[in-house]
Specification:
Layout lengths: L9 E5 L4 H12 L3 E6 L2 H13 L4 E5 L5 H15 L4 E4 L16 H23 L8 E6 L12 H21 L4 E8 L5 H4 L3 H4 L1 H6 L4 H11 L9 H12 L9 E5 L7
Parallel strand pairs: 1-2, 1-4, 2-3, 4-5, 5-6, 6-7
Helix pairs in contact: 1-2, 1-10, 3-4, 4-5
């Protein structure tokens, strides 16, 4: 068995310039994958690519709007034509959404924003890559959700419904693609403690809640949110990335249709 988890694998990461997508791209490359990162902010993609290239690994970037089904399809086709196949795909796309507004004051548009945005990108990217996966080369599609999928708290209607939708999508897609030798696994982290420093949208997402508590976003995450978990801490980017690499590898070949719970005990399944 190779010492590298993802040796000779071709991996595409949508949202590869973000905090989570970038962290996973770096670990995938370290573990031997040829990495293709796509997103809508070229500067962030380039920053991740420079880190990967500096290690001698192979990486390519592409400006792709994941809400454009035709563009995503062409990009996936081009990767398959260049690399021969797509073995791993991760959707790490972020969609800004409201957290904290109760039903009485929540607009339909804000409620639907994460539901439509997250699920639309999952459908588009999964459909684009699935036709280039599986059969003689095992394929893996990784998705990301949040504890809001199962938490019973107020003020996260759109967020919670979209998270539950992402988990249902992953489970149902796993059943559909299993005959083609494609696994589908959802990874459920909590808010990520080191994401603000890494440039994720976490800073904007929790700014209002933190301000209401008289705290910085980092204080808000490390204080109140972390204390709501069994481990009294939040997951790190490294923990999420290392888990993703294992789940994408052949060593996790019997796992599909399931959720990797990285919520630090915010949820106990």
């Amino acid at each position: 068995m190779s010492g590298l988890l993802l040796e000779n694998k071709n991996a595409v990461i949508y949202g590869g310039g973000g905090a989570i997508g970038g962290a996973i791209a770096r670990v995938f490359a370290r573990e031997g994958a040829r990495v293709f990162i796509a997103g809508r902010t070229q500067e962030r993609l380039d920053a991740v690519a420079r880190d990967i290239a500096a290690t001698g690994a192979t990486v390519e970037t592409a400006y792709v709007d994941v809400l454009d089904q035709q563009a995503v399809g062409k990009h996936a086709d081009a990767i398959a034509a260049t690399a021969g196949s797509i073995d791993i795909a991760l959707n790490a796309v972020s969609v800004m959404h409201d957290q904290g507004t109760l039903l009485a004051d929540l607009s339909l548009e804000e409620f639907m924003r994460p539901i439509d945005g997250f699920l639309r990108t999952l459908f588009i990217t999964s459909k684009a890559v699935a036709r280039h996966m599986g059969h003689t080369r095992p394929g893996v599609i990784l998705t990301l959700s949040e504890p809001g999928a199962k938490l019973a708290v107020g003020g996260i209607l759109g967020h919670g419904v979209s998270a539950a939708g992402k988990e249902a999508f992953s489970r149902l897609l796993a059943a559909e693609l299993a005959p083609s030798n494609i696994r589908v696994i959802n990874i459920r982290p909590h808010a990520v403690v080191d994401a603000p420093a890494a440039g994720s949208y976490t800073q904007d997402l929790f700014k209002a809640s933190a301000a209401a508590a008289g705290q910085s976003v980092q204080e808000f995450l490390e204080g109140g949110m972390a204390q709501g978990t069994l481990l009294k801490r939040l997951p790190t980017l490294s923990e999420i990335a290392e888990t993703a690499a294992f789940m994408a590898s052949d060593r996790a070949g019997a796992m599909t249709g399931t959720i990797a719970n990285l919520s630090a005990g915010a949820l106990v399944d």
